Amino acid sequence: MGKSQDLYKKAKKLIPGGTQLLSKRPELFLPDFWPAYYDKAQGCEVWDLDGKKYLDVSYMGIGACILGYADQDVNKAVKAAVDNGSMTTLNVPEEVELAEKLVQLHPWAQMVRYARSGGEAVGVAVRIGRAKSGKDKVVFCGYHGWHDWYLAANLSDDRSLDGHLLPGLNPLGVPRALAGTALAFKYNDTEAFLKLVEDNEVGTIVMETIRNDEPDKKFLQTVREVATKKGIVLILDEITSGWRLNIGGAHLLYGLEPDIAVFGKAISNGYPMAAIIGRQSVMERAQDSFISSTYWTERLGPVASLATINKLEKENVPAHLIKVGRQVKAAWQAASAKYNLPIEIGGIDPLGHFSFKAAEPLVMKTLYTQRMLELGFLATTAFYASFAHQAKQVDSYCQAIDEVFAFLAKAAAGDPKKCLKGPVCHSGFKRLT
Ligand SMILES: Cc1ncc(COP(=O)(O)O)c(C=O)c1O
């Protein structure tokens, strides 16, 4: 099992849950065998603690490393910022430069605030939304992080988040007084949305522009019209959808102009950074509340963001992500048909995923990861495309997909569980948006 699994066993005694992010739990991939820790990473290659090298064709830093690991251009800018001092009593000029860049890319927005992680950035946006509207209630669809405003949805009905997040998620520790302040609707369900906003206490809407399904035009149009008519603040969470289909938020592609948009993850290619951009009349209300934190002023985040956005533009990275994402989806589809193993493919092209339509889908998923790992791939039933996935890497993964589906078909002909070397993986992070 190697040094990584030994370390993970130790971690579980020292760190509740073993990791800081649910999506990085080894049990979600391959219990007892996933190389939980890395020593070094470059491009889309990762070396584990035993010096074994893998090609990462899974989540690429859970969606953060859109250019690839240790990108040279981003690292060069970050190293210079480290040498020049990443934190002082004075502010960093790059946060103004980045704000200018973000409002230039999103002409509907005039002002920008920063945070350093996705969940907290949506928390900031919701605070501003509530400050502006003067109303407590938030309606939302999709996943938006771990904060109280969001988990409050599970206080009144502990299944509200089932279609949006890990089923059965426990809001323990979230004040009961928040019950009824966050209400969920399903993406593209115009009727459900309209019913929720009949309540005049709703002052904020939070949703992703797109995740799995293409947006229904009428749905997006209705959301915008209702928000405008009722003075509700519309927040688009672009933490995962941003920068992959186009430069900036995916909402630019769909002609949907929010009041606030939130970016994280891919905006800085692996360095902590998040941005909250919005209309001046809404963002100014941040000043009437108290939203302030020391490390939101450090230098590496804005510097990494500027270098990342620069490279995304220069190399037209979204076009590349769409192309290789489609190639991998096509390889899954072809292998499924060739070996008669039904699957269901979903997700926007740069963030494709599939599930096995089998009697025991999790057994098949675990076997897929197990066999891929033996072939040198960090793989699961999702592929988050990065710029580091060039033709050579993608072709070799597509070849492995054919090989692994052939193996799975043989396993499925008997008892697939017997081919497993360890326990079945845990069911994943469900975002049925
Ligand atoms: C749409 C969306 N919002 C918010 C978050 C939370 O971001 P973070 O994990 O950086 O707190 C995520 C993370 O997966 C996300 O996909």
Keywords for this structure?
Aminotransferase class III, transaminase activity, binds pyridoxal-5'-phosphate, alpha/beta, seven-stranded mixed β-sheet, 38% helix, 433 residues, pyridoxal phosphate, four-stranded mixed β-sheet, PyrdxlP-dep_Trfase, transferase, 14 helices, Aspartate Aminotransferase, domain 1
Topology:
Blueprint: H1 2-14, E1 38-42, E2 45-48, E3 53-56, H2 72-83, H3 94-105, E4 111-115, H4 118-133, E5 137-140, H5 148-151, H6 153-156, E6 182-184, H7 190-196, E7 202-207, H8 217-230, E8 233-237, H9 251-254, E9 260-263, E10 274-278, H10 280-283, H11 300-314, H12 317-338, E11 343-346, E12 351-356, H13 361-374, E13 377-378, E14 382-384, H14 391-413
Parallel strand pairs: 3-13, 5-6, 5-7, 7-8, 8-9
Antiparallel strand pairs: 1-2, 2-3, 4-10, 9-10, 11-12, 12-14
The structure holds pyridoxal-5'-phosphate.
Describe it.
This is Aminotransferase class III. It comes from candidate division WOR-1 bacterium RIFOXYC12_FULL_54_18. InterPro entries: Aminotrans_3, PyrdxlP-dep_Trfase, PyrdxlP-dep_Trfase_major, PyrdxlP-dep_Trfase_small. Helices cover 38% and strands 14% of the residues. The chain has 433 residues and is an alpha/beta fold. α2 runs antiparallel to α11 and α13 crosses α14 (391-413). The chain binds pyridoxal-5'-phosphate (PLP). The site of pyridoxal-5'-phosphate has 13 residues, from α4.
